[in-house]
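Input (structure):
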């Protein structure tokens, strides 16, 4: 797992927000809702809309296109959707917020 700093402490909003960040070539949707931070893939698995343009409701992110919902903690789609989004671990450190990105399997020996 690679831990990558995505925002410094002084630039991290204490208010709820949804934003898009680019990390190691991945587009990530970073969310603060009800005091908790989450990171999920930004591309909706239904038809590719940007989840960072959506909104949060009861611990889920809602896609702005067709309103499919994904649990921010587990990534699971709502009942009946049969899909999910990737989730990423976050770690608040003294100097900022870090995200954990797994190394691709072909880079384990490098
Ligand atoms: S593109 Fe997200 S619900 Fe359809």
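Output (sequence):
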């Amino acid at each position: 797992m690679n831990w990558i700093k995505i925002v410094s402490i002084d630039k991290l909003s204490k208010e709820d927000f949804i934003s898009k960040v680019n990390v190691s070539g991945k587009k990530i949707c970073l969310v603060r809702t009800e005091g908790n931070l989450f990171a999920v893939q930004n591309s909706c698995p239904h038809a590719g809309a940007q989840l960072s343009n959506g909104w949060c409701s009861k611990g889920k992110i809602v896609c702005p296109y067709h309103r499919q919902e994904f649990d921010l903690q587990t990534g699971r789609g709502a009942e009946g959707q049969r899909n999910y989004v990737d989730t990423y671990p976050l770690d608040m450190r003294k100097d900022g917020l870090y995200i954990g990105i797994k190394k691709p399997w072909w880079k384990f020996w490098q």
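Notes: Residues 44, 46-49, 63, 65-66, 68 surround FE2/S2 (inorganic) cluster (CB under 6 Å). The first strand starts at residue 2 and ends at 8.
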